[in-house]
Amino acid sequence: MESNTLFMKNSEIFAEAMIRCGIRYHFAYPITPATDVMKYTAAHFHKVGGRMFQAESELAVINCLTGLAATGQLGCASTSGPGFDLMQEGIGFMTAAELPCILLDNMRVGPGDGDIIGSQQDYFMATRGGSHGDYYIPVYAPASGQEIVDLMPVAIDRAFTYRTPVLFVMDGVMAQMIETVDFTPAKETVSSYDTGEWSYTGAKDRGKRALITGSYAHSDGEQMVKKLMAKAEAMTAKEQLWEEYELEDAEVVVCAFGLPGRVCREIVQERRKQGEKIGFIRPITLFPFPEKVFAGLPGSVREILVVEMNYGQMVQDVRLAVNGRCNVSHYGHVGGDQPMIKAREVRNRLAALVPA
Amino acid sequence: MESNTLFMKNSEIFAEAMIRCGIRYHFAYPITPATDVMKYTAAHFHKVGGRMFQAESELAVINCLTGLAATGQLGCASTSGPGFDLMQEGIGFMTAAELPCILLDNMRVGPGDGDIIGSQQDYFMATRGGSHGDYYIPVYAPASGQEIVDLMPVAIDRAFTYRTPVLFVMDGVMAQMIETVDFTPAKETVSSYDTGEWSYTGAKDRGKRALITGSYAHSDGEQMVKKLMAKAEAMTAKEQLWEEYELEDAEVVVCAFGLPGRVCREIVQERRKQGEKIGFIRPITLFPFPEKVFAGLPGSVREILVVEMNYGQMVQDVRLAVNGRCNVSHYGHVGGDQPMIKAREVRNRLAALVPA
Amino acid sequence: MKKNKTLVINSARCKACGLCIHFCPKKALSLCGEFNDMGYNFVQSDQELCVKCNTCGTICPDVVLKVVED
Amino acid sequence: MKKNKTLVINSARCKACGLCIHFCPKKALSLCGEFNDMGYNFVQSDQELCVKCNTCGTICPDVVLKVVED
Amino acid sequence: MKTFREEKNFSWCPGCGHGIVARLCAELIEENNLRDRTCCVVGIGCGGFHHHYMEIDALEAAHGRSIPVATGYKLGLPDNFVYTLQGDGDCASIGLAELMHAANRGTPITVIMVNNGVFGMTGGQMSPETLISQKTPTCPFGRDAKLHGNPLKVSEMMQEMDGVAYLARLSVATPTLVRKAKKGLAQAFKAQEEKLGFSFVEILSPCPTGWNMKVVDSYQRLAKEVAEILPVKEFINKVGGES
Amino acid sequence: MKTFREEKNFSWCPGCGHGIVARLCAELIEENNLRDRTCCVVGIGCGGFHHHYMEIDALEAAHGRSIPVATGYKLGLPDNFVYTLQGDGDCASIGLAELMHAANRGTPITVIMVNNGVFGMTGGQMSPETLISQKTPTCPFGRDAKLHGNPLKVSEMMQEMDGVAYLARLSVATPTLVRKAKKGLAQAFKAQEEKLGFSFVEILSPCPTGWNMKVVDSYQRLAKEVAEILPVKEFINKVGGES
Amino acid sequence: MKKKLVFAGSGGQGVISMATLTCLAAIECKWNAVMSQTYGIEQRGGTAVGFVVISDEEIGSPMIEEDADICCLMHPMIVDAHIKDAASGGIVLYNSSLVKSEPVRESVEFLSVPATDAAQELGERRAANMFALGRLSAETGFVPIEALCSALEKMLGEKKKHLVEINQKALRAGYAGGCNEEK
Amino acid sequence: MKKKLVFAGSGGQGVISMATLTCLAAIECKWNAVMSQTYGIEQRGGTAVGFVVISDEEIGSPMIEEDADICCLMHPMIVDAHIKDAASGGIVLYNSSLVKSEPVRESVEFLSVPATDAAQELGERRAANMFALGRLSAETGFVPIEALCSALEKMLGEKKKHLVEINQKALRAGYAGGCNEEK
Ligand SMILES: Cc1ncc(C[n+]2csc(CCOP(=O)(O)OP(=O)(O)O)c2C)c(N)n1
Ligand SMILES: Cc1ncc(C[n+]2csc(CCOP(=O)(O)OP(=O)(O)O)c2C)c(N)n1
Ligand code: SF4
Ligand code: SF4
Ligand code: SF4
Ligand code: SF4
Ligand code: SF4
Ligand code: SF4
Ligand SMILES: [Mg+2]
Ligand SMILES: [Mg+2]
Fold first, then answer.
1. B71, F1, F88, H176 - which has most CB atoms within 10 Å?
2. In total, how many domains does chain H have?
3. Residues of chain B contacting A320 with CB distance shorter than 8 Å
4. Cα–Cα distance between B158 and B167 in angstroms, integer?
5. CA D68 – CA D65 distance, rounded (Å)
6. What is the largest CA-CA distance in chain H?
7. Nearest residue of F to residue H46 by CA position?
8. Residue ranges of the domains in chain B?
9. Does A178 contact G23 at a Cβ distance shorter than 8 Å?
10. Given this structure, which CATH class describes domain A242-353?
11. Above 70 in pLDDT, residue F241?
12. Which residues lie across from A130 on neighbouring strands?
């Protein structure tokens, strides 16, 4: 692809952004609504000397990615709900072993095989270490193709800086959406990170290295978890990202992430035009959760309406962030012929909260 | 076993309680610290016409359990962290398909292969639907062999009543602990539930039944999740269990579950003897979280100290439950040669909170 | 007593895939001009040519065709 | 020029499993009365009997025994 | 026929071999009077619609896990008749370990793998059974033995297992082969009913949509190109009946 | 020897066959000058200690997943030498699908399965390789072919795969067999170095602790009873060298 | 100026192509475009719906909720679910070859187009989608027919170049109100 | 009356058996008992530790944290990690056959017992644990020797009945302060 501005499916935008940023390995197993990513990399990675590897299962996918990451190279794995479940053990292993990678979960309706249409129901898994043990990884929730492109170099940087898996989540509706995007921000960045310090490339003269995922002395387990917690703390301090809109004098704030964020923002803009004191927050990082913007909310805020394509997941993080300082309510919607949250319902809730 | 009072390992007590309550199928794959359960059932289930089935992996375990549950019979699967990860997809499927079963997670240090000694780090996975999608299942956290026995018939009842997987969690230290237990409460109860209404035993004249885990029309997905949410709400209203001690005039409350709960209770008793106004809460159900006891806390409570063998998981539920009404602090400990939380540290924290 | 055989066509199920036409040894089948509810121009038979061998019924992936005896 | 062979025993590694004793064709090995740091009464050899065939070194699971040439 | 729900049109694509397999299963269940105590476990894939068209109890397993589900079911109701209906992606890619272990254990269930050489439901991606040079969305330049290996000979892998009572590769490529497939399937069902052990049939089937071919051409490809690499064959038959 | 860390005592039980395998690997790495670019991927099991005693880079994979980890590694560094060291539980029970797919793909890695017929590390439970009648904590009345199937012939399952360049079942039961095992292992390493495809060696090994036997008795059982069911044999050798 | 369109049909009918082509044509006109979609799990025969927003300004929310200016119903199975997508005052095109009786709904304008029959006459039943799109362009001017025709070439690309002709023919036939003039 | 005991050693030395037997003996005396444990991942050669609380009252917390009345160190590898488990004023028994020099710690009473050597003399090196336990009973009276001997039969059960004799012999030899009188 030569031009920088293209009209593409967001899953393809994700793939193209990877290519442009220098990622050369993609591991995947087909699953709707994530298969488009591997279709794209299968057709395009080879042109830049990369490889899409279709493994026999999601278990194999995440473990192939582990091996690749151990060589110091950055790879990616993409999937959706059921496949994401199967990857959790491996994601925990990679985190424990401090291996960087890029992950993508195009969320669909669950539990069970559920439905192939979009949802935002993997928030808990994504933000609270879906594997056993204590750990957190950075989670980015772009709301548009452009934001995918903008975030890709950031995610790659954090993967190397913190030596950790980094996760992107999109609801399936957004993943399948086609829109115009400018690829200029997706500069080659992968090659600028030196992984020689920690990668497992053969002992040579430097002495052996062993990637450890278990502990042979009980104290190792304690040390490992402490290290992971220290990283989580550093990320919480430094990596929070969000979009905010008209919070200064807001009485009611609407909070939504991903595509529903775009829908809600338009509604908030529309209500503002009517003179209603409504503000808007869209978390871009789900971990670390952008507590800072909640901490900085003006005293005028009476209520936060959290809108999600699930039955109440991110709302817990909002409640934890405001810790009782204002009321927090939730509107969730999952499935149906049009899986997106309903603008009408958001308008109704707002009308009840901000009587005209 | 004839006598009712026995000195046994808690993992064995779990197995014996299953037998006495009428469970006849146990599926498992070896993993420390949960293997003792399958060793016991392998040696004893056959005497009552039951079967321990060692599957080739935890994936096979949970899916065998699914098939068995579909016949209307109650089975069990036991595991620990890494194996629990691998079961998540299946647990989500069983929940979606409304199939009852008993699960046991003997928690060890994670993430990764981690360490085989005890921890309480699977709290998030256990309480927030470790698989993708929106769903919750009842989670019991006994603190002693006796409580395992007492809870087994309750868990079985809830599994059938709500037609849901029910999960027991124990930290690995407790799982390997040996103590005296009275089996009298473990009465045969499984056979008293009629599963003919929903089980898949062959169409005969009643017409076919199909266990659905996916949706063929998008509206099915919406309906399924709504049904699961309604169950979760009913459980939240009716199924909260906890132990409380001296809350009436407490200024500081210590909150811990499982074995650390026993340790903390002893410390609180000891401090009370010194006249300090300290109370104690031990959640027995982790889902539904016993919000009621927190809602009912007297105004005298200034601070809640949450003690866990992890770096801060249940503490989120405590914070959500008190919603800013008092301060909530956390002391966590994971791994090391003695993985249990340190009584000394709890005493120090309390001394700082309640100056003598 | 020679049995009477009939080729029954449940045209509502036909998806006009053409397999039966291809395999019919007697070239007794063809697609017709009309659409069924699914929008397919379903199969029709020429009863003159048909020898009721049920080859079509054996291969039809949509259980449209069946030779029945009475 | 005949090479000089020696059987070297790293007794700190021995776990007294007895395999070398069992397989030695010359019955040149036996457990001694002392313990090593791991608490095992390690293997000792009778250099008179030993023919330096390295059968013991081949089977020893703990890399205790080795016939070396100088 | 009580088993088959004639009023429900198949939702498979025109020409899809899953329809033929469904009809054969329905006929055999009916003919052997199994309906009352049959449970079909379907995999995730286009075969997952199989049970929509039959009056039998059915379970939808997680992708690749039909066999352990069937195993658990059979443990609970040993006298019921249990078969799985899986695609080659479900059975030979993600579910391969479960297949091999059940076969080796001699678990008395019947496994039907509808082998159409692609992941049909998700859009025709490469499966372990895709032929060399065949193009799919995930091997757009054709399957390459060096990168992707040769088509996996699943049936052949079970040849030396004592637990397997019936093992065959069948096909629906022509009316003659369909008739033969029915006989093989009948033997597989019998193997279970007679408690002889595990039974497995791999049924070569076309996926005109995934192969991006006209229906008739896809059957011809199945009869020739596919069968050359994956020959129709009966490997094990402990039932002893005609097939 | 630079590869081997003589100063570190093995933490395996007295008589454990893992020690012999570790020594053979160290010797071959040294003799073939592979140390600089070797990566060993160990499974979770007693074999997971293997790399503690060698001066080579190593990765500890999740239980059963060494092969995909090795695959990913080899993709990233195709010129490095990559072998997995797995137990029979790791490789043949939970990890069977990964093994078969890598073999079929012809992934140029070497897989070593130390087959001691039990899950050693977790306390000697039944593995797919446990012999009929053998008692373990999870089959306390002995493995029963009807309930548990026969020992899984893992090597035999790969016989027809074109991707496999070297395939053998070896043993450490006697000094003679140990020497033979070294030769087989050398061929497997060579198969990878010469980019001929996938190589697999199954090494029969004792677990005196898990078998609850005296060490010498366990080696005798290995030489006789185990080898009767799982014969020592070279199935495929595309290297052509002596072995 | 902002327009919202819904294209609904059965999988395999090409409604997603209708939506995509609409976007590409809008982009030809220097507008912005966003397309989203839902679909059944079947490869063929399930439902498929494409939602399109085109605008000469930046597009915030890409969602359509009972506010579509134009709603195309290509198959009877989706009529009930998607007729409500049209805004009141909107235009509802339906494929009268398959949707045998006019759908029931108030305050919309119906456009009955025998798209499948027309395409069959043109010799390619699968071009029914293009026929309908051409007709829509003629009736509503939502995008110019020339933009559709040139966008089509881009959409099909090198690989499917051989399909350009028949599809353009269908577009133009639809635009012309039938296929008779092409006979 | 409540007593806390720690038994630490290398895997395979039987320290968990020492802990279990202590509990069973306490139960023989109608006391309550709880045992917990930690261990390495190795089947042999790793560390193994048994923690025991016995009491004539109900036992709340089963944990031992630098407050053990008795601490048995059977192997040098665990000395550093577990000598701190003893309460000040507690008793520390160590297996002087393997722990070659007296461990260093203040305000505890040391008991040096050549358990492995003694057991070797008795003809079963693996009975070192019982020898140490017997000696501990003699020195501290934490449980009566008779309770240990009869609990041993219960612990070993029918299957391991053949091991009762040698282990009881070791218990009694330890109790008697050595094994000389048995020679
Ligand atoms: C864990 C998981 N991974 C992936 C999927 C997506 N998925 C659905 S069907 C399918 C493949 C179906 O192919 P096959 O089994 O060959 O059946 P076919 O449709 O070809 O008959 C896949 C990968 C899923 N549902 N769950
Ligand atoms: C997912 C998962 N399941 C189970 C375990 C527990 N586990 C650790 S080692 C092992 C078996 C080891 O047996 P094998 O692979 O034969 O190796 P051996 O110890 O016999 O050499 C098991 C089941 C685990 N660590 N992870
Ligand atoms: S084979 Fe069946 S579906 Fe196909 S055209 Fe013939 S009748 Fe119609
Ligand atoms: S029954 Fe035979 S002859 Fe008649 S239409 Fe069918 S295939 Fe042709
Ligand atoms: S074989 Fe090795 S470990 Fe065993 S006794 Fe001989 S020297 Fe010691
Ligand atoms: S070298 Fe040979 S003769 Fe000497 S001790 Fe070893 S085995 Fe015996
Ligand atoms: S995609 Fe293939 S397998 Fe699926 S229904 Fe269509 S033709 Fe059949
Ligand atoms: S348990 Fe078995 S495999 Fe593990 S170290 Fe001991 S003898 Fe070896
Ligand atoms: Mg398929
Ligand atoms: Mg093993």
1. F88
2. 1
3. 316, 319-320
4. 11
5. 10
6. 45
7. F11
8. 5-238, 242-353
9. yes
10. alpha beta
11. no
12. none
Q: Same fold for the domain at A5-238 and the one at A242-353? A: yes
Domains of chain C: 5-69 (3.30.70.20)
The closest CB to that of B35, out of F94, F123, F141, belongs to: F123
Residue in the structure block whose two tokens are 């003039």 = G181
Peptide bond into B33 cis (omega under 30): yes
Distance from CA of B311 to the nearest CA of E (A): 33
Within a domain: H28: yes
The pLDDT tens digits for E18-46 are 999 999 999 999 999 999 999 999 999 99
| Position G180 pLDDT exceeds 60 | no
At residue A8, the pLDDT reads: 96
G90 belongs to a structural domain: yes
Contact between chains at A343 and G38 (C-beta distance less than 8 A): no
Q: Rounded mean pLDDT of E71-76?
A: 98
Residue type, G134: G
The reply to whether residue A208 touches residue F56, judged by beta carbons under 8 angstroms, is yes
Secondary structure tally for chain B: helices H, strands E: 12, 16
Q: Does D15 touch chain F (CB under 8 A)?
A: yes
pLDDT recorded at residue G179:
43
Say whether domain E18-237 belongs to CATH 3.30.1300.10.
no
Predicted local confidence at residue E243, as pLDDT: 59
Residue G163 lies in a domain: yes
Mean local confidence (pLDDT), B232-249: 98
**pLDDT of A39 strictly over 80:** yes
Nearest to H38 among A214, A216, A218 (CB): A218
Q: How far apart are CA B210 and CA E5, in angstroms?
A: 14
Q: Does F210 touch chain H (CB under 8 A)?
A: yes
Instruction: State the residue range of the domain holding G121.
Output: 2-178
For E178-222, how does the pLDDT look when each residue is reduced to its tens digit (9 = 90+)? Answer: 999 999 999 999 999 999 999 999 999 999 999 999 999 999 999
Please tell me whether the interface predicted TM-score (ipTM) of this complex is above 0.90: yes
Is 70 exceeded by the pLDDT of residue A130? Answer: yes
The pLDDT tens digits of the residues spanning F25-45 come to 999 999 999 999 999 999 999
A207: chain F residues, CB-CB within 8 Å: 55
Query: Is A295 in the B-facing interface, judged by CB distances under 8 Å?
Result: no
Integer Rg of chain A from CA: 21
Q: What tokens appear for A96 in the block?
A: 């424990």
Q: For ligand 5, atom 2, name the residue with the nearest CA.
A: D60
pLDDT, average across residues A38-65:
97
Inside any domain, residue G77: yes
Within 6 Å (CB) of ligand 2, which residues are found?
B 29-31, 58, 82-83, 86, 113; F 43-47, 63, 87-90, 114, 116, 118-122, 127, 207
Tokens 């031992």, residue?
H64
Band (pLDDT 50/70/90 cuts) for residue H46 is confident
Chains C and A touch (3+ CB pairs under 8 A): no
Bridge partners (DSSP) listed for residue C65: C9
Q: What angle is formed at CA F108 by the lines to CA F107 and CA F113, rounded to 5 degrees?
A: 85
Supply the CATH classification number for the domain A5-238: 3.40.50.970
Q: How many residues does chain C have?
A: 70
Distance, CA B224 to ligand 1 centroid (Å)? 21
Contact between chain H and chain C (3 or more Cβ pairs less than 8 Å apart)? no
Ligand 1 pocket mutation pick from A27, A31, A87, A116 by most atoms within 8 angstroms of CB: A31
pTM exceeds 0.80, yes or no: yes
Closest C-alpha to ligand 6, atom 2:
D53
- Up-side HSE of residue B339: CA atoms within 13 Å toward CB? 36
CB atoms within 10 A of CB F58: 23
CB F87 within 8 A of CB F119: yes
- Who among A32, A52, A58 is closest to E122 (CB)? A32
Residue F121 CA to ligand 2 center (angstroms) comes to 6
Q: What does residue E39 show for φ and ψ, rounded to 5 degrees? A: -130, 125
